[in-house]
Amino acid sequence: MSEIPVEIFSSDQGRQIDRRAAELGEFRDGRLMRSAGRAAFDLIRDPWPAARSIAICCGPGNNGGDGFVVAEMAALSGFRVDIVSFGSPKGPEACEAHRRAVDLGLRFSDITSDWTSEVDLIVDGILGTGMKPKRDELILEGIRKINQARRPILALDIPTGLNADSGAVPNEAVSATATIKFVSLSPGIFMGNGPYRCGHLFFADLELPESLLSGVQPVCRRITVDDVAKRCSNLPVPTHKGEAGHLLVIGGASGMSGAIRLTAEAALRAGAGSVTVVTERDHAPFVNIDRPELMVRGVARGHELLPLFEGATGIVVGPGLGLSEWSQDLIAIVLDAGLPLVVDADALNLLAKQDVHNDEWILTPHPGEAGTLLHGTASVVQDNRLGAIRKIQEAYGGVCVLKGAGTLVGGYGSDLLLCDCGNYGMASAGMGDLLSGIIGAILVQGASLHNAAVCGTWFHSRAADLASAGGKRGMLAKDLLPFVRHLLDDPAFGNT
Q1: What is the pTM of this model?
Q2: Residue 300's CB: how many other CB atoms inside 10 A?
Q3: Is 314 helix (H, G, I), strand (E, B) or coil?
Q4: pLDDT, tens digit, for every residue of 217-227?
Q5: 417-419 β-sheet, strand order
């Protein structure tokens, strides 16, 4: 298998690259399909060495053709093979691969037969990135049967039913144990339902020349540990706390003091020299009751913030802020502070009501907040996360971090970056508050807006992966903090 590449391409771009590859002399006449099928079969023998019986589900397109090649190679290697057909092959390469399977006398099973009962592994080659899942009952029945079989599943190129560009599942989709992606990566693998549906990701470049990608601009790029290390390399090693920045963390309306406390503690753990929490007076005395390193100021009106701005080098506003008159009064003053800002949570919802553009802030919306910023819905955002983040950045300026599976980071004039770290254990209270504190801390230590957003996002998600060794369900936001500290010292911490 090949190393997972950095560049990510849309499904249309992927098809363009595939067409280029098929025109190369050494890959013409179905040889590209045979190379893909060989790579998939070679993979089968690694994670499932005991498998001797395989059911291969083949659709009518080239994805099905890849499946026929896998079936041929498995049969020649002594495997018991069942081919489950989901339509007659259409393209010349797929037809040739089908003919070879027929000539070998391989068994073809009907979707309605009991083909799942005695197999060790199922290969999903029904629909690839180039075909849109149809509301075809045969395909939907096949997806259900594959998922209910309780067998390991290898998806070829992408699980059937998963949108290759968005990670959405319009109807139903195969939940693969592993996916082998050929030639180029698709964004839907990393976003939305993609990580769950794809399982463990493998990549096969099929030894194609890099020149195939010439002139094709990727829609986004993966954030790598080397990229993070480079972006953090210029952060100074402080000789005193003043050189590590002073962050104001503003929010925590009545009943939501926990959010602002999480943000503030995360900022301290991420290296901010000092952190001042600005919150409602009623609970201000209790916010730092077991974290005396935090300074706390209770305020009743926005103008009380003004003297605090003088010693600050950056602001995080929004965690637990609420939408009250108090909240609106504070946000109005903060937006005129003239300091670098990280804007999160309810501050984003308040921001959406104003026509304001600022190139000195980082916006960190989750899909619901992104929908509000765009005067739409979370589902519209999730259907086109790449388009949504660009629209937010263009409308509001600065840098945008669109949270969720496959968190995206975008700034003016920069490539979109995607974080493929993280796991479903992060779907719990306080994770977003933690992220804003980490980003804010890196910002006040001297990083640029873009570097703070990229590094903070990656540290947060990577820490969640390290913390998940103790289990993903029930993982708490504060469980990440010890790993954040280690990663800031060494981004490669925890790599094996």
Answers
A1: 0.94
A2: 11
A3: strand
A4: 999 999 999 99
A5: 7-8, 220-222, 417-419, 407-411, 399-402, 361-363, 341-343, 314-317, 246-250, 274-280, 295-299
Amino acid identity at 399: V
Q: Mind listing the pLDDT tens digit for each residue in 235-264?
A: 888 989 999 999 999 999 999 999 999 999
Q: Which residues of 443-464 are buried (b: 16+ CB within 10 A; e: fewer)?
A: bbbbbebbbbbbbbbbbbbbbb
The pLDDT assigned to 61 comes to 92
Distance CA 379, CA 385 (A): 10
Contacts of 360 (CB under 8 A, 6+ apart): 339, 340, 341, 398, 449
Cβ atoms of 36 and 66 closer than 8 Å? yes
Kind and range of the H or E element at 128? none
**3-state DSSP call for residue 167?**
coil
Q: Which residues of the chain have pLDDT under 70?
A: 130-135, 496
Q: Give residue for tokens 């974290």.
A: 291
Tell me how far apart the alpha carbons of residues 290 and 262 are, in angstroms, rounded to a whole number.
12
Which has the closest alpha carbon to 72: 45, 110, 34? 34
Look-up of token digits 């629909």 = 127
Q: Do β-strands 153-156 and 121-125 pair in parallel, antiparallel, or remain unpaired? A: parallel
Q: Which helix (H) or strand (E) holds 367?
A: helix 367-373
Q: Token digits for 18?
A: 């595939």
Q: How many residues does the chain have?
A: 496
The continuous run of DSSP H or E covering 419 comes out as: strand 417-419
DSSP E strands, 174-257:
178-182, 200-204, 220-222, 246-250
Distance CA 179, CA 199 (A): 6
Token pair, residue 356, equals 């304001």
CA atoms of 129 and 351, how far apart (whole Å): 38
Of the candidates 143, 138, 30, 144, the one whose C-alpha atom is nearest the C-alpha of residue 88 is 138
For residue 205, give both structure tokens: 């470049």
Say if residues 223 and 458 touch (Cβ distance below 8 Å).
yes
Q: Where are the beta strands (DSSP E) in 15-157?
A: 53-58, 80-85, 107-109, 121-125, 153-156
Containing 418, the helix (H) or strand (E) segment is strand 417-419
Helix, strand, coil share (%) of the chain residues, nearest 5? 45, 15, 40
